[in-house]
């Protein structure tokens, strides 16, 4: 492989990063199975994959596996605060083109994405659609050479579906987020655990007995509510959707408007995918010492300009934790500058759950390499029985056996002549 170009914070961090990747590989058995299989068959040979996804130890396992399957890789992070510098250094040491470092400016962030386009990708792999938007908005000519792309997260898929509907997509996209073995696991159990992890690392406060307000009861919010409850918190949910609100209520959570929750909450987390969920009037109603954070992909759910305007003093009181002192002396603590707290203040979801998410990324890349040129320029669900394949392999690696329907049961299931 030609010497890869890269830009990382500090190559000397590589040894620590390499051992963390070893740790992740030991807990991602599905990915390691696929790496064994596809390093022989090389289904991605000749492919050039531009990736824009959080640079974590789990992403490094995905990158190594895509390369083992034959692909050439060029990578940037998908959030200015989520790159783990030791992992980026390890990837560079491994010879990969990686342009990512923690604390990037917005300018650096888009510069990094542009570097990954230099080798004219044939596939794109996104988390939050910044890469695909950059191609569509600034380098549309590159799209002609792209067979297809994938999208990791809910908000990215929402936007791409809107683009597809408007006929604006220049190549097909597979919605990896919407795979059951991603959405029902990563978004729920991954976000639930990693968001609590981020809050505890940034505050080390006791969650037991605290009023924990979760804005949004979708898959991510549901995971946060479930895990906060597990830590002994009194969970309050705010929502705009009547059905999600009912689900939260019947799960035993109090549901109310943010205007009410703002007065009683000790900890607030947004997981809505929407902007302006916590705004000026909520900050004005909050108790002294309230902790505010976000676990949605973009940093617009908490209105930070309005919080800043209300403060007479702002200081970083501990890593990923800023104290905003209001004019009347009340203090509000914002974590990870309002960016997704699980990746900016912690390490993101555990390896075991990313094992399935990234198996879907890998299989979708292989599918697009083979079929992308024939697919409509729209957003597509993962193909065929991919979910079953991932789930079955995951269970096998966990040593869990399950029952099988007999031929008679199969026949019974579809038999419409049999009555009660
Ligand atoms: C890489 C991660 C990790 C991790 O799949 C999750 C999702 O939907 C993204 C929203 O931006 C973040 C992504 N994610 C969570 N944990 N990506 N490594 N450890």
What does it look like?
The protein contains 18 helices and 15 strands. The chain has 420 residues and is α/β, with parallel strands linked by helices. The chain folds into 2 domains: 223 residues, Rossmann fold (3-Layer(aba) Sandwich); 155 residues, Rossmann fold. The chain has an 8-stranded mixed sheet with strand order 9-8-7-10-11-14-13-12, sandwiched between helices. It is globular and about 65 Å long. It binds ligand ARJ. Ligand ARJ binds next to helix 3, helix 9 and helix 16.
N/C terminus separation: 66 Å
Strand content: 15-25%
Q: State the strand order across the main sheet.
A: 9-8-7-10-11-14-13-12
**Main pleated sheet:** 8 strands, mixed
Low-pLDDT stretches: none
CATH topology of the largest domain: Rossmann fold
CATH superfamily of the largest domain: Adenosylhomocysteinase-like
Number of helices: 18
Rg from Cα: 22 Å
Q: What percent of residues adopt helix (DSSP H or I)?
A: 40-55%
Descriptive tags:
420 residues; Rossmann fold; 2 domains; 7-stranded parallel sheet; globular; binds ligand ARJ
Give me a quick take on this structure.
Helices cover 44% and strands 16% of the residues. With 420 residues, the protein is of the alpha/beta class. The strands form two sheets. An eight-stranded mixed β-sheet has the order 9-8-7-10-11-14-13-12, sandwiched between helices. Strands 3-2-1-4-5-6-15 form a seven-stranded parallel β-sheet, sandwiched between helices.
Outline the secondary-structure elements.
Layout: H1 14-25, H2 29-41, E1 48-52, H3 57-68, E2 72-76, H4 85-93, E3 97-99, H5 106-116, E4 123-126, H6 130-138, E5 148-151, H7 154-165, E6 173-175, H8 180-183, H9 186-203, E7 211-215, H10 219-230, E8 234-238, H11 242-250, E9 254-255, H12 258-264, E10 267-270, H13 280-285, E11 290-294, H14 304-310, E12 311-318, E13 321-326, E14 331-335, H15 341-344, H16 351-371, E15 379-380, H17 386-397, H18 407-414
Parallel strand pairs: 1-2, 1-4, 2-3, 4-5, 5-6, 6-15, 7-8, 7-10, 8-9, 10-11, 11-14
Antiparallel strand pairs: 12-13, 13-14
């Amino acid at each position: 492989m030609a010497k890869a170009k890269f830009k990382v914070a500090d190559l000397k961090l590589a040894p620590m990063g390499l051992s963390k990747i070893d740790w992740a590989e030991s807990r991602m058995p599905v990915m390691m199975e696929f790496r064994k299989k596809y390093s022989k068959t090389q289904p991605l040979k000749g492919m050039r994959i531009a990736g824009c996804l959080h640079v974590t130890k789990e992403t490094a396992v995905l990158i190594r596996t895509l390369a083992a399957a034959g692909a050439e890789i060029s990578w940037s992070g998908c959030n200015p605060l989520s790159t783990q510098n030791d992992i980026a250094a390890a990837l560079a040491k491994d010879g990969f083109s990686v342009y990512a470092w923690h604390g990037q400016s917005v300018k650096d962030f888009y510069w990094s994405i542009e570097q990954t386009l230099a080798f004219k990708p044939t596939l794109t792999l996104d988390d939050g659609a910044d890469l695909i938007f950059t191609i569509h908005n600034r380098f549309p000519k590159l799209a002609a050479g792209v067979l297809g792309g994938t999208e990791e997260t809910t908000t990215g898929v929402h936007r791409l579906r809107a683009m597809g509907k408007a006929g604006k997509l220049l190549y097909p996209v597979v919605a990896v987020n919407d795979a059951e073995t991603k959405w029902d696991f990563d978004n729920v159990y991954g976000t639930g655990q990693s968001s609590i992890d981020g809050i505890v690392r940034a505050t080390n406060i006791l969650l037991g007995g605290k009023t924990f307000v979760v804005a949004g009861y979708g898959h991510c919010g549901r995971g946060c509510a479930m895990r906060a409850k597990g830590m002994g918190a009194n969970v309050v949910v705010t929502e705009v959707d009547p059905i999600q609100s009912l689900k939260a209520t019947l799960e035993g959570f109090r549901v109310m408007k943010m205007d009410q929750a703002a007065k009683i909450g000790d900890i607030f987390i947004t997981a809505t995918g929407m902007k302006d969920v916590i705004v000026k009037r909520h900050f004005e109603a909050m108790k002294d010492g309230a902790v505010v954070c976000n676990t949605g992909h973009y940093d617009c759910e908490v209105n930070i300009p309005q919080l800043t305007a209300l403060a007479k003093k702002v200081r970083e009181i501990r890593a990923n934790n800023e104290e905003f002192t209001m004019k009347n002396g009340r203090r509000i603590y914002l974590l990870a500058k309002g960016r997704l707290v699980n990746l900016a203040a912690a390490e993101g979801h555990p390896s075991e759950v990313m094992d399935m998410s990234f198996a879907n990324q890998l299989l979708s890349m292989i599918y697009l390499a083979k079929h992308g040129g024939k697919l409509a320029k729209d957003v597509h669900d993962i193909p065929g029985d991919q979910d079953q394949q991932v789930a079955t392999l995951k269970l096998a690696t966990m040593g869990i056996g399950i029952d099988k329907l007999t031929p008679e049961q199969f026949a019974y299931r579809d038999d419409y002549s049999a009555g009660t």
